[in-house]
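Figure 6 in text form: structure in, sequence out.
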């Protein structure tokens, strides 16, 4: 029998929290920044509206929105470059980006559970 959901969540958080390097979740498609900030708010709105009507895609929509946030942060990190004056800011941005990836992975766990429950009914 697999690990409990609580243990799986703790494993995901540890994997991202303990990294000083960017870790990009692959639980959902990349958020991308090609659409700019409009996509950021459009994806948040789609997730929230899906949640309002108890839609099946709520987990994935929030995770894709989180990936969009993460990818925007990664774009900012690249813009900051390797200037020593930016190193502390970059460290913080890496942790925020990793937390968003962890969020996406956790949402993926819940979506898998939801699908397994639906299939078992």
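Output sequence:
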């Amino acid at each position: 029998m697999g690990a409990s959901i609580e243990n799986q969540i703790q494993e995901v958080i540890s994997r991202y929290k303990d990294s000083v390097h960017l870790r990009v979740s692959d639980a959902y498609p990349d958020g991308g920044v090609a659409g700019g900030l409009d996509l950021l708010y459009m994806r948040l709105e789609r997730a929230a509206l899906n949640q309002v009507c108890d839609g099946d895609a709520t987990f994935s929509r929030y995770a894709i929105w989180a990936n969009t946030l993460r990818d925007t942060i990664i774009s900012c990190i690249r813009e900051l470059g390797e200037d020593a004056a930016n190193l502390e800011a970059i460290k913080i941005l890496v942790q925020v980006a990793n937390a968003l990836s962890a969020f996406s992975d956790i949402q993926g766990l819940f979506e898998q559970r939801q699908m397994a429950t639906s299939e078992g009914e």
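Caption detail: Residues 87-120 form the longest helix (34 residues).
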